[in-house]
């Protein structure tokens, strides 16, 4: 599972980077709320990482899923359908990445189930994507508190600045366990360069993947 401390922290680019590091990866987006130029997060992941992607439902407005679905008069898929779909993908691929919408406690269906509930049902370890700047230590701690009792894969800084400040560097030193940091301009790369660079951004994750392959 890939979640974030907030919206806009770099979940999608991080998901693409993780998918580039892990062998035989596929990405699932349970709810896509909001599209830019007709594209959703799964399209961005497919372009950058070159891996298969799937969506549960696509909604046009960049809002919380429940509100976005209500606005166009459709029902959200119940969380059990996401569980079943992920299980089917897991039977065909070595790694399934599930990218959330917004933060960990955003509701994914009309019954009030959240990404945290989906993670619990799947028993999946969770990657938390966070910012590098001021406030990130508190936001990250709050998200991890909400994850208590669930397996965590680690933290990723989703948009590491080209010219980090002293605050950025200090926060990076305190964010543990840190899998790595994705450069702020990573989305500008083509597929080949993105996939080649991703292991250097996520060295801890690459080390785990290499160990597992052995």
Largest sheet: 4 strands, parallel
Order of helices and strands: EHEHEHHEHEHEHEHH
Total domain units: 1
| The CATH architecture | 3-Layer(aba) Sandwich
Q: Kindly provide the radius of gyration, computed on alpha-carbon positions and rounded to a whole number of angstroms.
A: 16 Å
Low-pLDDT residue intervals, each spanning 5 or more residues: none
Level of helix content? 40-55%
Examine the coordinates and then state which fold CATH places here, giving the name of the CATH topology.
Answer: Rossmann fold
Number of helices: 9
Secondary-structure content class: alpha/beta
| DSSP strand content | 15-25%
CATH H-tier superfamily: P-loop containing nucleotide triphosphate hydrolases
End-to-end CA span: 24 Å
Number of strands: 7
Write down the CATH class.
Alpha Beta
- Strands across the major sheet, in which order? 1-5-6-7
Protein name: ATP-dependent dethiobiotin synthetase BioD
Pathway: Cofactor biosynthesis; biotin biosynthesis; biotin from 7,8-diaminononanoate: step 1/2
Main location: cytoplasm
Family: Belongs to the dethiobiotin synthetase family.
Structural key phrases:
214 residues; alpha/beta; Rossmann fold; four-stranded parallel sheet; three-stranded parallel sheet; 7 strands; 42% helix; globular; ATP binding
What is the gist of this entry?
The protein has 214 residues and is α/β, with parallel strands linked by helices. The protein has helices at residues 11-21, 41-49, 65-72, 79-90, 115-122, 136-146, 166-174, 191-201, 203-213; strands at 2-4, 25-33, 53-59, 95-98, 126-130, 152-160, 178-183.
